């Protein structure tokens, strides 16, 4: 049986499907007719092999407590080895209902109330939320936008923040959401060596690891043996195969003590088995989804190139930050002269677009907008045209 879901140009009506992206505009303060390209959720049907596996499991009709068996790990192991040259071990694996949940558990497992947790703003906003909501302090080694139109790390400030704030835990985002960086071996090694020297635990959010368009994704824990010992690596098929509502992630913790402390927090939170459909979807995705994944990746790469060309030719005062990874493009509107609030009004009420405002990623995100380009080309074209008209007016 061949893969059926390879028409990424097809527009699928998602309204009325309990879609967070499409059905909750009014509840979130947006006009009902807004075009949503905000949350990291693709507008593509997932692999037909995943659909078929879920339908087959649903037909069984009994949905009691479920757990994985040996093939589950072997399938994940094969994907990580093939795509990221990483040999994972079964004893490292902990399953959680999502990466953000895992971040929260790490905060509770490895820090105390009042401790600082280091992040690199502008960054995926739940990083800050799970730190602050658990009574810890957000400390930022803020990234800077270089003359090469790429974001960079201030390594002196990175170490200074660790020592001054007595940091025990660092959240690494690789590939970085929203700025689209795929960190190099040199950059990750500089960070890693500092963390080893200063006894800092690294939670590496690698959920976008399968979306790399320039460079190569390097698993942080795989770079040096000593990094393995301080790492919690967060992965999931949810971004790669558009399975966010399946609520499942694969977290790898090679250090026995760190894994024990993490598991203790999971037990305290009352989590045990995950939903069977998420487990079925993960197995099908990693074992049979390769053709769909490659076709989707190629389509998204073309959308990124299309966006770059369009912005350069048509959006005066807007710059697309150099893009290396994820399907979330970071647009710089600062040269339009619009304030953050004016930009927001322009997007929502004139362009009738729902993007992610840069300000939610931290103070350094003001003047930027994040746009999700994992959608049919005609939808992306319409969105960019709306921005052009709104700015022109």
Give a short summary of the structure.
This protein has helices spanning 48-60, 70-84, 99-110, 126-132, 155-164, 185-197, 225-228, 256-268, 276-288, 290-314, 340-350, 377-392; strands spanning 35-36, 93-96, 116-119, 137-140, 144-145, 151-152, 169-173, 201-205, 231-235, 249-252, 319-320, 328-332, 353-354, 356-357, 368-372. By secondary structure, the protein is α/β, with parallel strands linked by helices.
Structure, explained:
- Helix 7 links the parallel strand 8 and strand 9.
- By secondary structure, this protein is of the alpha/beta class.
- Helices cover 39% and strands 13% of the residues.
- The radius of gyration is 21 Å and the shape is globular.
- It has helices at 48-60, 70-84, 99-110, 126-132, 155-164, 185-197, 225-228, 256-268, 276-288, 290-314, 340-350, 377-392, and strands at residues 35-36, 93-96, 116-119, 137-140, 144-145, 151-152, 169-173, 201-205, 231-235, 249-252, 319-320, 328-332, 353-354, 356-357, 368-372.
- Helix 1 runs antiparallel to helix 9 (276-288), helix 2 crosses helix 9 and helix 10 (290-314) runs parallel beside helix 12.
- The longest helix is centred in the last third of the chain and has 25 residues, at 290-314.
């Amino acid at each position: 049986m061949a893969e059926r879901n390879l028409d990424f140009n097809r527009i699928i009506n998602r309204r009325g499907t309990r879609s967070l992206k499409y059905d909750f505009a009014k509840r979130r303060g947006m006009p009902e007719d807004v075009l949503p390209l905000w949350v990291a959720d693709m507008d593509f049907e997932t692999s037909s092999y995943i659909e078929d596996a879920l339908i087959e499991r649903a037909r069984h009709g009994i949905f009691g407590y479920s757990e994985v068996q040996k093939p589950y790990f072997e399938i994940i192991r094969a994907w990580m080895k093939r795509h990221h040259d990483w040999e994972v071990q079964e004893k490292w694996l902990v399953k959680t209902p999502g990466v953000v949940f895992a971040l929260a558990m790490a905060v509770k497992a490895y820090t105390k109330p009042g401790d600082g947790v280091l992040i690199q703003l502008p960054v995926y906003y739940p990083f800050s939320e799970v730190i602050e909501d658990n009574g810890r302090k957000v400390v930022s080694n803020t990234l800077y936008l270089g003359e090469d139109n790429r974001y960079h790390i201030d390594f002196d400030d990175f170490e200074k923040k660790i020592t001054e704030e007595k940091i025990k835990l660092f959240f690494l985002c690789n590939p970085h959401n929203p700025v689209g960086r795929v960190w190099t071996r040199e950059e990750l090694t500089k960070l890693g060596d500092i963390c080893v020297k200063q006894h800092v635990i690294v939670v590496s959010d690698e959920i976008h690891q399968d979306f790399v368009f320039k460079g190569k994704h390097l698993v942080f824990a795989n770079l040096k043996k000593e990094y393995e010992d301080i790492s919690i690596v967060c992965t999931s098929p949810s971004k790669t195969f558009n399975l966010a509502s399946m609520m499942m992630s694969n977290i790898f913790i090679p250090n026995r003590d760190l894994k024990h402390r993490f598991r203790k927090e999971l037990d305290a939170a009352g989590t045990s088995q995950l939903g069977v459909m998420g487990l079925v979807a993960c197995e099908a995705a990693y074992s049979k989804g390769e053709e769909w994944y490659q076709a989707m990746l190629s389509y998204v790469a073309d959308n990124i190139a299309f966006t770059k060309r369009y912005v350069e030719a048509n959006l005066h005062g807007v710059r697309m930050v150099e893009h290396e990874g994820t399907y979330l493009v970071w647009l710089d509107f600062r040269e339009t002269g619009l304030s953050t609030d004016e930009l927001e009004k322009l997007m929502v009420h004139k362009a009738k677009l729902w993007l992610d405002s840069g300000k939610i990623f931290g103070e350094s995100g003001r003047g930027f907008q994040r746009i999700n380009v994992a959608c049919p080309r005609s939808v992306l074209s319409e969105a960019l045209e709306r921005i052009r008209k709104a700015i022109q007016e």
